[in-house]
Amino acid sequence: MPSTASPAEPQQILQEVFGYTAFRGPQAPIVDHVTAGGDALVLMPTGGGKSLCYQIPAIARQRAGRGVTVVVSPLIALMHDQVGALHEAGVDAAFLNSTLDWEQTQDVERRMLRGEITLLYAAPERVTTPRFLSQLDSLQERGKLSLFAIDEAHCVSQWGHDFRPEYRALTVLHERYAGVPRIALTATADALTRADIVERLQLEEARQFVSSFDRPNIRYTIVEKKDATTQLLRFIEREHEGDAGVVYCQSRKRVEDVAQTLRDAGANALPYHAGLDAAVRQKHQDRFLREEGIVMVATIAFGMGIDKPDVRFVAHLDMPKNIEGYYQETGRAGRDGAAADAWMAYGLQDVVNQRRMIDESPAGEEFKQVMRGKLDALLSLAEASDCRRVRLLGYFGEKSTPCGNCDNCVSPPQVWDGTEAARKLLSTIYRVQQQSGISFGAGHIMDILRGKTTEKVTQFGHGSLSTFGIGSEFSEAQLRGVLRQLIATGALAVDAQAYNTLQLTEGSRAVLKGETQVLLRESVSSPAERKPRREKTARSAPSPAAATLDATGQARFAALKAWRAEVAREHNLPAYVIFHDATLASIAERAPATLEDLQGISGIGAKKLEAYGSDVLRVCAAF
Ligand code: ADP
Ligand code: ZN
Question: What's the pTM value of the predicted model, to 2 decimals?
Answer without folding.
Answer: 0.83
